[in-house]
Amino acid sequence: MTERTVWTFFYGSNINLEILKRVDYVPERVEVARLHGFDIAISPLANLVPSEQDVVYGILATGTHGDLDRLYGRYVQDELGALYLPEAVLCETLDGRLIPALCYIAPPTDKTQAAPDDYLDRIIKPAREFGFPDWYIDRLERFRG
Length: 145
What we know:
Strand order of the largest sheet: 1-3-2-4-5
Order of helices and strands: EHEEHEEHH
Strand content: 35-45%
Mean pLDDT: 94
CATH superfamily: Gamma-glutamyl cyclotransferase-like
Largest sheet: 5 strands, mixed, barrel
Radius of gyration: 14 Å
Distance between the termini: 48 Å
Number of helices: 4
Shape: globular
CATH topology: Hypothetical upf0131 protein ytfp
Structural class: alpha+beta
């Protein structure tokens, strides 16, 4: 029996499909989307913070729960030492369709630390390739120390 797939919204370094490949996660479908009601914070890893006036660009990708367990368990938690938990969100595609998805968000913390440039590069390069708006790329660039 084939494992069921779900949509997941990625917004940080996981928009980089090479990162997903590290844990054998190759989405069948990928689509640029935005998530209203949040802002992105990067200190040192990307996370979402609630904000009524902001929007976060990212990608919607299909995958199985096994894919997500490998990504957020083995890679994010074990290698990066970060805990991200799934939440239900409603994303908007560039053509205006609304798609319910999972989105992994870390619990709030007071810890702030500058992100390394190579980490930011793993976000900004694919953001450019996916055609995120220039103003959003500029927003990501401002996280450089």
